[in-house]
Task: structure prediction
Amino acid sequence: MRRLRGGITVAVAAALVAGCDGLEPGGSSAGSGPDAAAGRAASPLTNADGTKPGLRALTSEADKANARKLVDELIVKGRGPKTGYERDKFGYAWMDTADGVPLARNGCDTRNDLLQLHGRDVQFRRGSDCVVVSMDLYDPYTGKDIAWKKAKATEVQIDHVVPLSYAWQMGAARWNKEKRQQLANDVLNLLPVSGSTNSAKRDSGPASWLPPNKEIRCSYAVRFAQVALKYDLAVTAADRATMSKQCQG
Result:
């Protein structure tokens, strides 16, 4: 059996979500909003490497206090110029050879790894244990389920929580190519979400864009902070203030 990078087998990754409540027989949605994610979405506070599926809302006062402490650790500076930014500076899309991140070099590209990790009722192309052709996805950004098929691939896109262009302007322009490739393919910085929602986000920081699902905004701020701290990236003052505000009691 092919192993997901980081030692998670395909069977285990499927089991993380397949045994959970929330869908009716046949894969149809049993609801949307916070309850739909119950049991199949991990708290970002207990998922520091991003290898657990989903993004669960933070609701307790203790969790929100811990979230604010994390955000407070962020370094603040102004957003630099976009001069010289190109997507290829972070490696070709969904490369399997970005060393130093979870799920590296398992023979399956990053996009399909993410679909497997976060999807439910995952179906593969015949003869493949990598290429996902259908699944059900709980999208934390909208709080809705997406019954996805590869024939309409763009309905689900992989969001870089800290956008690559944003990272470029906040310091990645000075990184070597290996570190940029890591950021672009690190599961901590990646979430499969609604394609239209991802397109609306573009390269915005939290002060300019937050997930439409208000219940998840503190969790989103935590994940953004986790990525920035891991890669020693600064954020703007407006972004840090917005992130902290999402986690107020």
Summary: Residues 217-230 form the longest helix (14 residues). The longest strand covers residues 132-139.
